[in-house]
Design brief:
Strand content: under 5%
Number of strands: 0
Shape: globular
Subcellular location: Cell membrane; Membrane
GO biological process, one term: electron transport coupled proton transport
EC number: 7.1.1.9
Membrane topology: Multi-pass membrane protein
Number of helices: 18
Main location: membrane
Bound molecules: copper (II) ion
Length: 526
């Protein structure tokens, strides 16, 4: 079975708890990766149900389904759940499964901390979700929880703050684990510049996480003391500054969007060479581009604040710095395209999602450059144009990357092939309904429809109806994904050792000759 590696044999004589305790106490990177991925999928469905409730309310003008206060709670919680519950844990799940195998390590460096990192997440998610049921309800007013609004809300906000603390701790521990594993546990011959791109992108992502998660923790802690202990960090009447919260929050928040996309870049950089049957074009430029994106992502945060009041010099700096990110991103898109160029391509589901990723993520990148232009941003600020932009980045970017990686590695993880026909159906339904949902939101935004409002003027009715139909189609299509995964786990054709014809036994991408180890069996690390 392809999923079983020789180093598992070393653990065969250990004491193994069974049943629920097996999952509670596991220190095995594959078990923990699996738990991360299932947790992420459950959160994806939870946040998805919230999105569908939002789209149901917006199906036609007038208030029908939820009251405005609950609508605000839904938009806020949808964002928090999808970011911290769905996308980030999914990538940590991929990291757990793949990084040790890709670098020839027996497991993650801190196997017990790895268990703890995961098991912090379910209680944090429960805490966050239970804020719906306390007086005042869940946080409302957006996932960015700006004061002064967030200072005035009910205790649901305190619960969200604690949930963010716990999830942040989980992320930081996960990142330390990933960094330590990659830097210390590579097999002989696996030099840094021979690591698979997925490992590189996660190494850089982990550094970003260690850099910015404590900053978020600081921001929400100040919010907590402003709310409960009489401090005035963000209270202008007490000598504080609410705009300072925005600066601190976005110093976390902008790198956060790269935290959610760099691992997807890594996945796509593994998938494209396999199905183009060529080595990755421009490997080292890919590494440097990833690092450049990460560094630049730390100096662009105030592009979220162009309308908050800023000197023109500041606006110009943040505008140009933001546009500069398009350069290394362009290098990546060029390299992926050049990898496919004259390759002997086939279009299995992982490749379809990877190509869909390149096409649609690039579109999201273009609308990002549009939003970066100060005069345009001032016009489209807080409209559906921004919603359309970041869903092109996060859904057809991050989520398509996750789907691509899931189909690519499912045979390795389960030992079975997934149903290719159904996989293709899943891709095309997802692709069509995604664009139906979000492309029209560009037009709504340009026409001036504001975000986070449960009702709208009549002229927006047609596009909203199209968007809501798209959203429900998109949501239903994801149940097909669940079915495909369950079917693959329960059986199906045995996955061959070399899963993808012409693919690598290792997830291994090199412009140069392979190192002296084949890594078919991981070498002993001393
Ligand atoms: Cu940003």
């Amino acid at each position: 079975m392809a999923a079983v590696h020789d180093h598992d044999v070393a653990h065969a004589h250990d004491h193994h708890p069974s049943g629920m305790m097996r999952w509670m106490m596991t220190t095995n990177h594959k078990d923990i990766g699996t738990m991360y991925l299932w947790f992420s999928f459950i959160m994806f469905l939870t946040g998805g149900v919230m999105a569908l409730t939002i789209r149901a309310e917006l199906f036609q003008p007038g208030l029908q389904i939820v009251n405005p206060e609950f609508f605000n709670q839904l938009t806020t919680m949808h964002g928090l759940i999808m970011i911290f519950g769905a996308i980030m844990p999914a990538f940590v799940g991929f990291a757990n499964w793949q990084i040790p195998m890709m670098i020839g390590a027996p497991d993650m460096a801190f196997a017990r901390m790895n268990n703890w990192s995961f098991w912090l997440l379910p209680p944090a998610a429960l805490l966050l979700l239970s804020s719906f049921f306390v007086p005042g309800g869940a946080p409302a007013g957006g996932w960015t929880i700006y004061p002064p609004l967030s200072v005035q809300m009910g205790m649901g906000m305190d619960m969200a703050i604690f949930a963010i603390h716990i999830m942040g701790a989980s992320s930081i521990m996960g990142s330390i684990n990933i960094i330590t594993t990659i830097l210390n546990m590579r097999a002989p011959g696996m030099t840094l510049m021979k690591m698979p791109m997925f490992v590189w992108t996660w190494l850089i992502t982990a550094y970003l996480l260690v850099l910015v998660m404590p900053v978020l923790a600081g921001a929400v802690t100040m919010l907590l003391t402003d709310r409960n202990f009489g401090t005035n960090f963000f209270n202008a009447a007490g000598g504080g500054d609410p705009v300072m919260f925005q600066h601190i929050f976005w110093f976390f928040g902008h790198p956060e969007v790269y935290i959610m996309i760099l691992p997807a870049f890594g996945i796509v950089s593994e998938v494209i060479p396999t199905f183009a049957r060529k080595p990755l074009f421009g490997y080292s430029s890919m590494v440097y581009a990833t690092a450049s994106i990460a560094i630049l992502s730390c100096i662009v945060w105030a592009h979220h604040m162009f309308t908050a009041g800023m000197p023109v010099t500041g606006q110009l700096f943040f505008m140009y710095a933001t546009m500069l990110i398009a350069v290394p991103t362009g290098v990546k898109v060029f390299n992926w395209t050049a990898t496919m160029w004259r390759g002997s391509m086939t279009f299995e589901t992982p490749m379809l999602f990877a190509i869909g990723f390149i096409f649609l993520f690039t579109l999201g990148g273009f609308s990002g450059v549009v939003c970066a232009i100060v005069p345009i941003d001032i016009q489209v600020q807080d409209t559906y144009y921004v919603i359309a932009h970041f869903h092109y980045v996060l859904v057809s970017g991050a989520l398509f990357g996750i789907f691509s990686g899931a189909y690519y590695w499912l045979p390795k993880w389960t030992g079975h092939m997934y149903d290719e026909t159904l996989g293709k159906w899943h891709f095309w339904l997802t692709m069509i309904f995604f664009n139906l949902t979000f492309f029209v939101q560009h037009f709504l935004g340009l026409a001036g429809m504001p975000r986070r409002i449960p009702d709208y003027a009549l002229q927006f009715a047609d596009f909203n109806m199209i968007s809501s139909i798209g959203a429900f189609g998109f949501g239903l299509s994801q149940l097909l994904f669940l079915y495909i995964v369950l079917k693959c786990i329960r059986g199906g054709a045995k996955a061959p050792a070399k899963t993808w014809e012409g693919g690598k036994t290792l997830e291994w991408t090199l412009p140069s000759p392979a190192p002296y180890h084949t890594f078919e069996t991981p070498p002993v690390v001393r």
